[in-house]
Amino acid sequence: MASTGPAGERNSDDTAARRAPARDRTHLDPLAALRTRDDPPCDVYLTGTVFLDIIFTGLDSAPVRGTESWARGMGSSPGGVANMATALARLGLRTTLAAAFGDDHYGEYCWDTLAHGEGIDLGPSRTVPGWHSPVTVSMAYEGERTMVSHGHEPPPEEPAPTCPPRARAAVASLTPGRSAPWIAQAARRGTRVFGDVGWDDTGTWSLAGLPDLRHCEAFLPNAEEAMRYTRTDCPRTAAHALTEHVPVAVVTLGADGAYAVDRRTGETAEVPAIAVEALDPTGAGDVFVAGFVAGSLAGWPLADRLAFGGLTAALSVQEFGGSLSAPGWTEIAAWWREVRSVQGEDAAELGRYAFLDGLVPRAPAPGWPLRRAVPTIGFRSAP
Fold first, then answer.
1. In angstroms, what CA-CA distances link 309 with 255, 274, 290, 331?
2. Model confidence at 356, in pLDDT bands (50, 70, 90)?
3. Nearby residues of 364 by Cβ (< 8 Å), 6 or more positions away
4. Which of 23, 203, 212, 288 has minimal Cβ neighbours within 10 Å of its Cβ?
């Protein structure tokens, strides 16, 4: 295991090597036409907790109390905020993550996977001495998942002066009843903030209890969350109601796709989900948000952003492993070629993704195929 310095950081020579970004993993930059010499150092900034995810797949049903169930598949990968960070990086966005990493083999594995394997900038991140990595066990069955997690909050630490860095965008997980000062700070510096939210365990479901929502450009709840927050019984009505609080509201509809409203332009869009056989839905919502953020930064129309988010999410659920299930441009290109080659494919359905024509690569990107989840970590090479 790597050693740590007095502030909890890995030693400088070790840290430099581990943070070296693999920027040539993709030869497609969705923001290439927009880049200038005065660009921020990163495209997307995010912060949160990195988990070690252990995913069981191939379960015929939910585990039954008092019995033992055997899964036909198993994968391990970084999880938590790593799901979103990896999805963004695999779409060619320069991604910076501020997170605490455990001072154990799990933490070392997650750090190496994100920094070396995915090219994510971990400059603001740290290893916390004596703190163990949070762990989630996810069991996928019948298109759904059940999760059990364990972990402890890392010791509090003041943000570094450069945290958050200047960025085009930030993805923020809004917490009911709590404010995160970095969100307002980022918004004041011109960063476009995309907010998502988890289940409100307090049961209050009050938009006033999301103080950082006012700093967001877009809010992306699921249908149930959106209806509870707006006291409505229709997710589309909820999306319109949310635009009284945020410029862009995107409501995910599960198997029915997604619906969005942009108050500034008057655009509305609804895109159905792509029908696929889901192996593991872990992290699919994060991948959808990453696709939507990429399209937003590239300046695409609202409908194209929704379609792209839905496509990336659909491709991710056909792999397992949370963060490492996210697709890259090579997988997106392969899907686009395949669906166009199918005889009798609905022309209107294909037309929804026509924006991919001038975008996807014609050859596999460097670093392809992408890393996927492995059954366990720490394998030693054969002698």
1. 13, 11, 7, 14
2. very high
3. 330
4. 203
Looking at 129-234, list the stretches that DSSP marks H as alpha helix, in order from N- to C-terminal side. 181-188, 223-230
Residue 322 to residue 232: CA distance in whole angstroms? 32
- Residue 92 DSSP symbol: T
Helix (H, G, I), strand (E, B), or coil: what is residue 316? helix
Count of positions (residues) in the chain? 383
Element (H, E) at 268: strand 268-271
Q: pTM of the predicted model, to two decimals?
A: 0.88
Q: How far apart are CA 1 and CA 135, in angstroms?
A: 18
**Residue 310, pLDDT above cutoff 80:** yes
> Can you tell me the distance from the alpha carbon of 321 to that of 56, in angstroms, rounded to the nearest whole number?
9
Q: Which residue has the tokens 């059990």?
A: 148
Residue 112 dihedral angles phi and psi, to the nearest 5°:
-60, -40
Beta-carbon contacts of 197 under 8 Å, excluding residues fewer than 6 positions away, are 173, 174, 175, 176, 210, 219, 221, 225
Tokens in use for 264? Answer: 């500034």
